[in-house]
Design goal:
It is a single chain. The protein has 249 residues and is of the alpha/beta class. The protein folds into two domains: 2-208, Rossmann fold; 210-249. 42% of the residues lie in helices and 15% in strands. It is built from eight helices and six strands. It has helices at residues 2-5, 27-35, 84-92, 116-126, 152-157, 160-168, 184-200, 210-248; strands spanning 14-21, 54-60, 63-69, 103-109, 137-142, 173-175. Strands 2-3-1-4-5-6 form a six-stranded mixed beta sheet, with helices on one face. A hairpin with a 2-residue loop joins strand 2 (54-60) and strand 3. The longest helix is centred in the last third of the chain and has 39 residues, at 210-248. The termini are far apart.
C-alpha cells in the first residue's frame, strides 16, 4: 500500500517462489508452512522426499502464490558429485513458473554448521543458475526453534560461511519454525520481505529463457528413458542370475 501511495511499483498479486537447498533442509515442510496446507510430501524418514521439482498453488494473505519445491543436493556434495538428473531438476525448478520466480528461497537449517565444504556446495549448486539469481534470492532459515535465546543475527555473526551467503543475498534472510504452522505471522513477514526485495530490484523477477526450458525438458526425458532402460537391464540380469543359481542348488 505504501508503495502504491508513493506512486511507485504496485505489488504483484501473484508471487512465484522457488525453494532450493541441500537435502533435509526442510524445503518441503517450508512449502507447506507457506501455503498453509499439506501441499508437499514430508512423510519419508531418513530418505530424500523430493526427487523431482514439484509445483503447488494457494492463496495466502490475499496473494496468489505459486511455490516450487526442488530436489536437494547432499550435504557437502560438490556439483560434480551431484547426479545429472538432480542437476537437471534443480535447473528446471525456475522454469516451472514462467516467466520466472519473483523469489528464490535458499533454505538452510539453523542447526547445520556452515563449514567450507557446505559453503562450497552452496556456491557450486547456485552456479546452475545465472549470476543475477542472487539479486532475487533470500536466505530462509528453518528450525527456528533451534535458536533458543540466541538471535538469528548472532547466529549469522558466529558463522563466517553464513555471513558470505547472507551478504551475497543482499543481507536478506528470514527465520521459519515449521514445527509451529499455526504462527501465521512468520509467513506474513516472509511475504512482505519478498515484496520488499521485488520492489528494490530493477528486474521484477529472475527471467528464464523459455527456449532453454524446452532444451532442459528434452534432456530430462532422455535421462529418464536411459534410467528406465538401465533398470530393465538390471532386472533381467537379476532374474537370469537367480535362475542360474537356482539351477545349481
Amino acid at each position: 500500500m505504501k508503495l502504491q501511495i508513493e506512486g511507485r511499483k504496485i505489488s504483484p498479486n501473484h508471487l512465484r517462489i522457488v525453494m532450493i537447498g541441500g537435502s533435509h533442509a526442510g524445503k518441503s515442510s517450508t512449502g507447506n508452512t507457506i501455503l498453509g496446507k499439506s501441499a508437499f510430501n514430508v512423510n519419508k524418514i531418513n530418505e530424500r522426499t523430493t526427487t523431482h521439482s514439484e509445483i503447488n498453488h494457494g492463496v495466502v494473505e490475499g496473494r496468489r502464490l505459486t511455490v516450487i519445491d526442488s530436489p536437494g543436493w547432499y550435504y557437502i556434495h560438490t556439483l560434480q558429485d551431484t547426479n545429472e538428473m538432480d542437476k537437471l531438476e534443480i535447473r528446471n525448478s525456475v522454469y516451472l513458473c514462467p516467466p520466472g520466480p519473483h523469489a528464490v528461497l535458499l533454505v538452510i537449517p539453523l542447526a547445520i554448521s556452515i563449514d567450507a565444504s557446505y559453503l562450497n556446495g552452496v556456491q557450486q549448486h547456485m552456479s546452475l543458475f545465472r549470476e543475477d539469481v542472487w539479486k532475487h534470492t533470500l536466505v530462509l532459515f528453518t528450525r527456528g526453534d533451534w535458536l533458543g535465546v540466541k538471535t538469528v543475527e548472532e547466529h549469522i555473526e558466529s558463522e563466517e560461511g553464513l555471513q558470505w551467503i547472507v551478504n551475497k543475498c543482499g543481507n536478506r534472510y528470514h527465520v521459519l519454525n515449521n514445527m509451529d504452522q499455526s504462527d501465521k505471522t512468520q509467513v506474513k513477514e516472509l511475504l512482505e520481505k519478498i515484496e520488499e526485495m521485488w520492489a528494490g530490484n530493477e528486474d521484477p523477477y529472475y527471467e528464464v529463457d523459455l527456449d532453454r526450458a524446452a532444451h532442459i525438458e528434452a534432456k530430462k526425458e532422455a535421462e529418464d528413458k536411459m534410467v528406465k532402460r538401465l533398470k530393465k537391464t538390471n532386472e533381467r540380469k537379476s532374474r537370469f542370475l537367480k535362475e542360474v543359481l537356482g539351477g545349481k542348488q
